Amino acid sequence: MTFLSFLISGLSLGSVYAIIALGYTMVYGIAKMLNFAHGDVIMVGAYVCFFATTRGNLHPVFGVLLAMVVCTILGVVIERLAYKPLRAATSLAVLITAIGVSYFLQNSALLLWSSNPKVFTSVVGNASLKLFDGQLTISVIAIVTIVACLIIMAALTWFTGKTKMGKAMRACSEDKGAAQLMGINVNFTISVTFAIGSALAAIAGVLLCSAYPTLMPTTGSMPGIKAFTAAVLGGIGSIPGAMIGGILLGVIEIFGKGYISTQLSDAIVFSVLILTLLIKPTGLLGKKINEKV
Amino acid sequence: GGTEKPPAETPNAGGKEPAATAFKIGGTGPLTGGAAIYGNAAKNGAQIAVEEINALGGIQFELKYEDDEHDAEKAVNAYNKLKDWGVQMTLGSVTSTPGVATSAEMFNDRIFALTPSASAPAVTEGKDNVYQMCFADPNQGSASAQYIADKKLGTKIAVIYKNDDVYSKGIYNTFVSKAKELNLAIVSTTTFTEDSQTDFSVQLADAKKNGADLIFLPMYYTPASLILQQAKSMDYSPKYFGVDGMDGILTLENFDTSLAEGVMLLTPFSADATDERTVNFVKKYQELFKETPNQFAADGYDVVYAYKKAIETAGITPDMKAADICEKLVQVFPTISVDGLTGEKMTWAKTGEVSKTPKGMVIEKGTYVGMD
Amino acid sequence: MLKVDNINVFYGAIHAIKGISLEVNEGEIVTLIGANGAGKSTVLKTISGLLRTKTGGINFLGKDITSTAPHKIVERGLAHVPEGRRIFLQMTVQENLEMGAYTCPSGGIEAELEKIYALFPRLLERRKQVAGTLSGGEQQMLAIGRALMSKPKLLMLDEPSMGLAPILVEQIFTIIQEMNKAGTTVLLVEQNAQMALSIADRAYVLETGSISISGTGRELAESDEIRKAYLGG
Amino acid sequence: MIVLKKSTRKNLTTYALVIVAYIIVQLLISGGNISSSLQGQLVPICAYVILAISLNLTVGILGELSLGHAGFMSIGAFAGVVACISLEQIIPITILRLIVSLIVGAFFAGVAGFLIGIPVLRLKGDYLAIVTLAFGEIIKNIINILYVGLDKAGLHVSFLSDANALNLGDGGRVIIDGPLGITGIPKLSTFTIGFVLILITLFIVLNLIDSRSGRAIMALRDNRIAAESVGIHITKYKLMAFVTSAALAGAAGTLFAMNYSTIIASKFGFNTSILILVFVVLGGLGNIRGSIIAATLLTILPELLRQFNSYRMLLYAIVLILIMLATNNDAFKSHLQALKERLLPAKFRKEKGGTENG
Amino acid sequence: MDKGDVNMLPVLEARDLGINFGGLMAVNGFNMAIGRTEIAGLIGPNGAGKTTVFNLLTKVYQPTHGTILLDGRDTQNMNTVQINKAGIARTFQNIRLFSNLSVEDNVKLGMHNHIHYGMWNGILRLPAYWKGEKQAHEKAMELLSIFDMESLAGKQAGSLPYGAQRRLEIVRALATKPLLLLLDEPAAGMNPSETAELMDNIVKIRDTFQIAIMLIEHDMNLVMGICEKISVLNFGKVIANGNPSEIRNNPQVIEAYLGKKREG
Ligand SMILES: Nc1ncnc2c1ncn2[C@@H]1O[C@H](COP(=O)(O)OP(=O)(O)OP(=O)(O)O)[C@@H](O)[C@H]1O
Ligand SMILES: Nc1ncnc2c1ncn2[C@@H]1O[C@H](COP(=O)(O)OP(=O)(O)OP(=O)(O)O)[C@@H](O)[C@H]1O
Ligand SMILES: [Mg+2]
Ligand SMILES: [Mg+2]
């Protein structure tokens, strides 16, 4: 029974990572940049939803929608102002700019909303399912997160694989110049990528804070880094990979704590990551690209 | 509610140039970053005290707080900035690790420090001119164990502490050794870190599995609030015992206070106390900062009043050099007794440690109630 | 159809194109020849909008496109087979071809695909192969095929014969001529000056960023100067 | 007139820059014209300069993104300080003890670099980056559960429990106390030592780059397959760069730690790694002189912004973004180039091309 | 073919070489022997497997079957680096220079295993460093002079015009002191007059260094002009072997590769 309850905790933590990782992968796989500000967009999304539901008394559904709208706009604006001028620069230059944006968002949040933590009200309430005479509890938010994660993964897979915009995104991710020669509006495509990534960030923020309700200006940064790790573990650019990577990371974290040592939990998670990559150097579902010589 | 709305950095009651008529006091603390709540609280508390004292027209203070991002390196930078400004006595650093670093500098520079909240023993150890306003961590640890044993609060105890945090680990260390001494049964010890402070299901499951009926939580209230919430969703309802960092949990915006029902803690301050001094302070704080003050704010407030008392006793004047002030304060501090928000008749040992009695509090219906 | 008027292009501080003007009329095959590094590829990249000119203007189908975004230019009917092929290495052959038809309504793609596969049976064989693992020549075929997918009005080819077997070079030139007969205007950059001149209506010779000679294909092919410099004696 | 190789000329300028900066600062100090704030930052600036140079060796010269450089810094910091405290009786001369500590710090970090490098360097690109990040976090986690004490019997080491498990004898001293880190560190680092260490670092890195081994390392970066085809042993040279980089970071860590009375493991986490990376990228990949300047300026910048109080870090973020936009945007760069051309007579103008080495 | 070659062990012998890419036999049953100072050509339609043969010989790919004897030694367990040390150097169809390094450094990298001083000698600038670098510099200049490229020594390799880059790749390969030099489409992107010059140089290299050269090329002027022996590959199999005139008139080759109406 302990095993099962650990597994469930792992799945629910993992699905939060996964949902963040999906947004990460979207931008990471297509714009080919590590958007370290992603975690902070998540934080903004959570704050928007928080204020909308507590101070604005909006229904949670509208809270989430509003958060998505705000984050989408924020994502697109950030892309336009901070990343677009660097289209021709090295990816590292963009990475550093993203770090600047991350600091910017965190410190703006600090000034706007103060450093005092807020307690987020779960958008689906705190109900939980009790199984085996209450020996096993599954919270509703965990179920919602996992389901949301699956739906988003499926939708993204369909979108990038089947739609015209999705194909344009793949083309941009490989060669922006050639994509332009195909008649693809690269700037627009990348904006759409950021819009989707940021909308997902809003959802992720709301779900993250529903499950783990402390909300602070730094709330997004650690989950952001873990989700990035998860995205790499799953294989860069692979949408199902991001999800599997996220869930695995969560499960390993909980099992590591539960069965080995809480003191070593970070080391365990990262050791498993390293071992996995040593065995499979392109992540779990990453494509092995053999360079033609 | 912003932290930075209040009037001016350095209020000047008379409207005249403070120059040599005001004492320059300053401190460092995390005003940005993940620990910013503590720094801002201490700063705000001190600021209220400065405004009050300046309004009296006697001793005048000029207060400056520099951001240290909860980092030893930045804290030394911040402290040096204060030196350039001409600081005459300091409020040290708000948190422990930066506190250890800055207090070593202040010891060398002969600038007196009274820190509101840097509670690690290493902050004061071997430094005759560094004093604490808060309990030192070991005291909290052993006092908590003693309290639990005396009142027979729990038979099987679980401890969850933050493994990469000086404060949390410091209290844990002495709690454990004292508990051993008192034959308290610790049945579960688990940890978490800055990087993994979201999910506590494993820690709670361990405590539950081992039948713990009391969980000792030497940590700040933010992770504690998550523990309370997650335990509830597991249908696990042990007693909780916290330390001074737990204070503030009721002020968390939008917190479901019923989760904290029955949580006990040792703290020198509670915002719900009904004495005039506290009521007055809380009211002012809420007006200025739109938040309820926590214990850091109270400690910051008390530090300024302690300085006032010491200055009066020692006959120090604003035109004196920092080093001279330091020598006088070193002599006078062990002799004075101060009444403040965090304790009546507080006195200091020559080691810099404060002596005040912690109050055992329990949360009932969303307010703190004295346990004794 | 295409009118390039006194363009100047820079790579940072390097002045790569120094006041070039040229014209391509509807239905023509025009070729640009010149030594390595003369700036041929740069001219093509500037026309398709990948690079910007500092001065002067470019007019395509009666509209000024000097500062039009590349994708808009492509939509107007220009296709560019860039130097170095620039195929999408991680996509399959077929996906690459489909990308070529990005601006076209999705209906007619099938027919167009079939045409390309008929031209290059090799590509049909390798339809599902990841383009990055194709041989050099196969990649070149794919790059040309991809450009043809959009049924362009003006086709710009940058060294299409590079790396192709002799038999294929012939084929490519035949294809160019056929396409031209069917109404596609062609601007061709070639190292293989002899072949290029033999099918070109007109030609321009580029020398370190400026046009040194221009004339009809035949005139240039017969000029001694050109023979010596570009046709190997 | 002796004509120096372009890279030699560049390197000499770099040395000159460092030496002149040192002299100016010393003059300011002796004249009492320097603020405590700036003076307090001199040693950390030296440490960050060394860290930036060493990371540039991995990121700029070897071409592999590392997100865990602070891990090596922390190994150097803890190992160096433990050495320093343990040797208190044996080597009473402080300067000598500091030098030994620096070497110990560099050695341990180098060994860690070697052990980590062997598996890690088989990976590529972002996968490698994430694994270095992971190692950085693991190092942090391990130091957090590491207890080291000293008594007459020598060093005692214990994991996972607490300082009591060290079973120290009478008069024993706990040196590393798990998450509490080390306290009571003697403040032995000085600006002059830092300066000398920078010169040594420059000497090692610049000479390495401009030698047979350095060429091989840069060849790996530019084209791995071609490098193999001319007979260059990939792993050997990757490791050489990685280990050198780690060892220098270790020395910098010791220098840094010996400037503060306390260090804790969490200081050397992801954020610090990123900070060093920011120096490197801002200064220019492969550009050693750029790293020095960027590390110095970006360390001072947040202190200069203190007057803006609570807006300080926000401004820092904005400045960082603006600098990145300014230095990496083509349009902006060509404006800058044009300006330079107008201002500088032709013969002083730098030739384009060649890697930036110094 | 040089007279001396006839009685000597071939520098390279490939027997029944083959590789399978997930079901596709890119090269199948490839046999070839190259004399010590021979210039051999490898031609064939696009995708026939020519580059793959080079990749097999240099162990960029491990052959699925077959043997390669280099100077009589089986190369079964060698990797790319060891192959180079044992005597095969190559250029690439897609230019692979160390494009951020100078032209001279590119050549010195070719000489990497022939410069003998270690890391510490380099860092500490011991005499071995100065001696090694001086020799390397002189040798690099000498090699660059083959293509009259001494004046480009300080230029960044990536900034050279395409043709110069191709030539530099050859110089770099030569610097490894190979017994056998593999050139993959050395004349691609060159105009006829540049190609003519390249042909002279290839012959000159063979004559001065007394090494074997094997080249892949689609420019028939070059192949027919300088190769002493030509193998034609189609669908991974050798379909013809012989001297230029034999190949030129082989109907199978004309059908698959040359086409009926030939240029030039
Ligand atoms: N990205 C670039 N950065 C700097 N200079 C460049 C760049 N691309 C080209 N150049 C320079 O611009 C000039 C023209 O180059 P371009 O590629 O247009 O020549 P080309 O005629 O197409 O030559 P080739 O026959 O080699 O393809 C050359 O001197 C080249 O070195
Ligand atoms: N790594 C690989 N994976 C799958 N197929 C490959 C791989 N490498 C080569 N091939 C296939 O093997 C065949 C031979 O390729 P190769 O590059 O050897 O051709 P080539 O003879 O050099 O042609 P070209 O003259 O066009 O360069 C091609 O059809 C190619 O698609
Ligand atoms: Mg070109
Ligand atoms: Mg080939």
TrEMBL record, chain A:
Pfam families named in the record: BPD_transp_2
Keywords: Amino-acid transport, Cell inner membrane, Cell membrane, Membrane, Transmembrane, Transmembrane helix, Transport
CDD domains: TM_PBP1_LivH_like
Signal peptide start and end residues: none
Transmembrane spans: 6-27, 34-53, 59-78, 85-105, 136-160, 181-208, 228-255, 267-286
PANTHER family: BRANCHED-CHAIN AMINO ACID TRANSPORT SYSTEM PERMEASE PROTEIN LIVH, HIGH-AFFINITY BRANCHED-CHAIN AMINO ACID TRANSPORT SYSTEM PERMEASE PROTEIN LIVH
Similarity remark: Belongs to the binding-protein-dependent transport system permease family. LivHM subfamily.
UniProt-listed InterPro entries: ABC_transp_permease, BCAA_transport_permease
Gene Ontology cellular-component annotations: plasma membrane
Protein's name in the database: Amino acid/amide ABC transporter membrane protein 1, HAAT family
Chief site of localization: membrane
Intracellular or extracellular location(s): Cell membrane
Single annotated GO MF: L-phenylalanine transmembrane transporter activity
Its membrane topology: Multi-pass membrane protein
Single GO biological process annotation from the record: L-isoleucine import across plasma membrane
UniProtKB/TrEMBL annotation, chain C:
Family annotation (SUPFAM superfamilies): P-loop containing nucleoside triphosphate hydrolases
SMART domains reported in the protein's UniProt record: AAA
Transmembrane segments: none
Matching Gene3D superfamilies: P-loop containing nucleotide triphosphate hydrolases
Gene Ontology MF terms in the entry: ATP binding; ATP hydrolysis activity; branched-chain amino acid transmembrane transporter activity
GO biological process: one example: L-amino acid transport
Pfam assignment, any one: ABC_tran
CDD domains: ABC_TM1139_LivF_branched
Domain ABC transporter: 2-233
Keywords: Amino-acid transport, ATP-binding, Nucleotide-binding, Transport
Family statement drawn from the similarity comment of this UniProt entry: Belongs to the ABC transporter superfamily.
Protein name: Amino acid/amide ABC transporter ATP-binding protein 2, HAAT family
TrEMBL record, chain D:
Transmembrane spans: 12-29, 41-63, 70-92, 98-121, 128-150, 188-209, 239-262, 274-301, 313-332
Coiled coil: none
Keyword Transmembrane helix included in the entry's annotation: yes
GO cellular component labels: plasma membrane
Membrane topology: Multi-pass membrane protein
Record bears the keyword Transcription regulation: no
GO molecular function: branched-chain amino acid transmembrane transporter activity
Keywords: Cell membrane, Membrane, Transmembrane, Transmembrane helix
InterPro entries from the UniProt entry: ABC_transp_permease (IPR001851), LivM-like (IPR043428)
Compartments (UniProt record): Cell membrane
PANTHER family for this protein: HIGH-AFFINITY BRANCHED-CHAIN AMINO ACID TRANSPORT PROTEIN BRAE (PTHR30482:SF10), HIGH-AFFINITY BRANCHED-CHAIN AMINO ACID TRANSPORT SYSTEM PERMEASE (PTHR30482)
Name of protein: Amino acid/amide ABC transporter membrane protein 2, HAAT family
Species this protein is from: Desulfitobacterium dehalogenans (strain ATCC 51507 / DSM 9161 / JW/IU-DC1)
UniProtKB/TrEMBL annotation, chain E:
PANTHER family: AMINO ACID ABC TRANSPORTER ATP-BINDING PROTEIN, CONSERVED COMPONENT OF ABC TRANSPORTER FOR NATURAL AMINO ACIDS-RELATED
Pfam families per UniProt: ABC_tran, BCA_ABC_TP_C
GO BP term, pick one: L-alanine transport
GO cellular component: plasma membrane
UniProt keyword Nucleotide-binding present: yes
Keywords recorded for this protein, A-Z: ATP-binding, Nucleotide-binding, Transport
PROSITE patterns registered for this protein in UniProt: ABC_TRANSPORTER_2
GO MF terms held by the record: ATP binding; ATP hydrolysis activity; L-isoleucine transmembrane transporter activity; L-phenylalanine transmembrane transporter activity; L-valine transmembrane transporter activity
Protein name (record): Amino acid/amide ABC transporter ATP-binding protein 1, HAAT family
Taxonomic placement: Bacteria, Bacillati, Bacillota, Clostridia, Eubacteriales
Gene3D superfamilies: P-loop containing nucleotide triphosphate hydrolases
Sequence ranges assigned to domain ABC transporter in this UniProt record: 12-260
